[in-house]
Specification:
Radius of gyration: 23 Å
Number of helices: 1
Largest sheet: none
Low-confidence stretches: none
Mean pLDDT: 85
Distance between the termini: 67 Å
Order of helices and strands: H
C-alpha cells in the first residue's frame, strides 16, 4: 500500500497495517527481553572481591 497520498478512505487499512506492525514489534521485544532474562541469570556467577581471601 505504497501511495504518495493517503485519503480518508485509506485510513482503516493503514491503521490496521500499523497495528499489525506494532504487535509484531511488541512480540519481538517480549521475546528478546525473555532471552535477556535467561542469560542474565546464567552469567552473573562471579563473586565481588571484598579484600577477604
Amino acid at each position: 500500500m505504497e501511495k504518495s497520498e493517503l485519503t480518508f478512505n485509506d485510513l482503516p487499512q493503514v491503521i490496521a497495517q500499523l497495528r499489525d506492525e506494532v504487535m509484531g514489534m511488541r512480540a519481538l521485544l517480549n521475546r528478546q527481553q525473555e532471552e535477556n532474562r535467561k542469560h542474565q541469570v546464567g552469567e552473573n556467577r562471579h563473586k565481588p572481591l571484598n579484600g577477604h581471601i
